[in-house]
Design brief:
This protein has 11 helices and 36 strands. A hairpin with a 2-residue loop joins strand 16 and strand 17. Among the domains are: 148 residues, Jelly Rolls, CATH 2.60.120.260; 93 residues, no CATH class. It is globular and about 80 Å long. Strands 1, 3, 4, 6, 7, 8, 9, 10, 24, 25 and 26 form an 11-stranded mixed beta sheet that branches. A 6-stranded antiparallel beta sheet has the order 11-23-13-19-16-17. Helix 4 packs across helix 11. The longest helix has 25 residues. The protein is of the alpha+beta class. The N and C termini lie far apart (77 Å). About 2% of the residues have low confidence.
Amino acid sequence: MNIKKTLLLLVLILQFPLLQCQIKLPKLISDGAVLQRGTDIKIWGWASAEEEIIVKFKNKVYHTKTDNQGKWHVTIAAQKAGGPFKMEFKGHRNTITLNNILIGEVWLCSGQSNMELTMKRLQDHYPEAIKNSKNSKIRQFLVPDTYNFTQEQTDLNNGTWMEASPENLMEFSGVAYFFAKELYEKYQVPIGLINAALGGSPVEAWMSEDALKPFDSAYNTLQRFKDPDLISNIEQQDQKRQHDWFALLNETDKGFVKGSEWFLQAYNDDTWSSMQVPGYWEDQGLPNVDGVVWFRRTFEIPQSMVDREAKLWLGRSVDQDHVYVNGTFIGSTGYQYPPRKYKIPSNVLVPGKNTITVRLINHQGKGGFIMDKPYFLSVGKDSIDLKGSWKYQLGATMEPLPDPTFIRWQPAGLFNSMIAPLLNYKIKGTIWYQGESNTQNPKLYYHTFPALINNWRARWNMGDFPFIYVQLANYMEEAKMPSESQWAELRQAQLNTLKLANTGMVVATDLGEWNDIHPLNKESVGQRLALNAKKLAYNENVVSSGPIFKSSEIKDSQIVIYFKQVGGGLMSNDGLALRHFQISGPDENFVWADAKIVGNTVVVKNIEVANPTYVRYAWADNPFGANLYNKEGLPAAPFRNYNPKP
């Protein structure tokens, strides 16, 4: 036994230096990579200390030597767009050949869920775009979702370059794909998308430690989360709290009494009450209830819809659903945001009476089914509307379940793992869609968002590369009267960030959905991002934005507003009187204002405001119907003409 151990140890010792000599490349530099045209390209990697490395590319040979830590790099002079090419790496012990390399434009695509949202989630909205998506010149590299609080990582855990195709597109960011598609159609240049986005992430998570130093709360939080024991304790506490909550829920849920489970087709629900679906149960007889409520709906199916797979769409619900059809479990969704789209196997539906049962669990707040979403069952072209009266019964009442601590959203964690490994890779610019997670403290965003842009530009060391971002879309219920809005405040912070050089902003207050933080119209968002890129990155003489507030002055009890980016002139996009303008005196007590276009200005007034001082436009969570545009069809950015009192 001792001899065997000795031999095994000897083998490992002999193998170790050989392994050390292997050339290693970063995950980004791999088969199918898109490299940035028009600038020196840095190619880097690792090998043994003091090792000679030879790189061959396009009939040129580059020699380098690793330093005492085994790091090496070569610089390839600026290249024109083209490909595919091969790139070969040769060291003492191994040779690596990369295939299908393109030279083109590389865009970093980052932010939170509206950037992350994949074409898979959009497939029912854009079936033709997906069907016709095959294009080997549009590629995405999906950065894995990881975090690290202790140090900046030098490489990614995994990841590959994927070409656009109907199959691969399911993993592409929807916004980024439509952005790339628009640019490719215009310039016929390969487009590489580095998709580094994570749902729910605040801006602080994407900033480096040194950039966080001016922000005491975020910086101190980062220091705390460098302690792995703290993270472990938090995770254990969160897991135990959730486990105990669901264990008690399942134990006390009356719908799970053995032998008379409420999801069974034969269960008699005659004594149940009725409720309108969609809608919240707090508004329909179950106020202040957290826990589980069961819903049942019986409907008739003709013979023509039997023995075929069916489609069941149940809108969206808060928070977690389990769906049964005729007692057969169909599917479940664990949190509130994804659409409920289920397939019913061909052997489940029967002629005549059928029953859908939904076990709906709500953790906290208002539970129920979201309005203005599709609720139907269909087979082929035949469809049954499922909106209307459903039977319901309370299964169990629970204390609210607190949200977990989302550790991966803590400051600097995503920068260290998802941005730092990219910093050597040359890019054309960045597109960014984020902000929803910072609406609880929008005033801080006036400082953190510009700090992030400056941070990234400094770390990439490529000057003021184009940074184009999406302003928050309209969301939540419309306000009947002027009121304060944290979403509007954050939009103002985004507007103010245009003061930074080479930045562009997409206005999206006409592209959102009141009942969905993830609106489906990602094509228009991508196209507007591309329009900004045409101006900032490609120096096209185009109108890339709707009207932007420039200044205002008081004249004869009216406020006259001047704009930039008027393009061909101002207009009401629906031909009606301008809406969503608010006016106030020095007291900041805002009321609706009459507004009209006069040349390239807008004049606002309210005869009841004798001393007009302040004006604001589209100042609401959801300024739906705001109709000031330029004649190029681009909406005006929400704004106010003042900084409020501290």
